[in-house]
Amino acid sequence: MLRFGDYEEEVVNCIWGQPMGYHASFSLFITATFERYQSRYRSSRAYMNLLLGLGELGQYLILAAHNFGFGACMTPALRDVEISELLGIDGRREEALYYIGVGVPASSMD
Predict the structure, then answer these.
(1) In angstroms, what is the C-alpha Rg of the chain?
(2) Which of 11, 37, 87, 110 is the most buried (most CB within 10 A)?
(3) 66 Cβ partners below 8 Å, 6+ apart?
(4) What is the pLDDT of the chain when averaged over all its residues?
(5) What is the model's pTM?
């Protein structure tokens, strides 16, 4: 965990104003440190494998959330500069690739 607190407005801004960021119990921004990843996987398919692993991790997190009765949403639509500032990462060596928000499903909030 990088930060604890109420960053709802900042998170929604970082995901281009998508309303799914409101009311999330917690938000995950999945990042990658490219240099570390490339030193481990030295093939031309390294980036593709990174993205496939990212999708698999996202799927597991969403299934786990649903298993516990939570809703989950995800998006790769991120404001790169704002995300880097919020997370305190440089945006070159490490960059946020995906957002996953977990919370109470909207259908149960009625």
Answers:
(1) 15
(2) 11
(3) 72
(4) 90
(5) 0.86
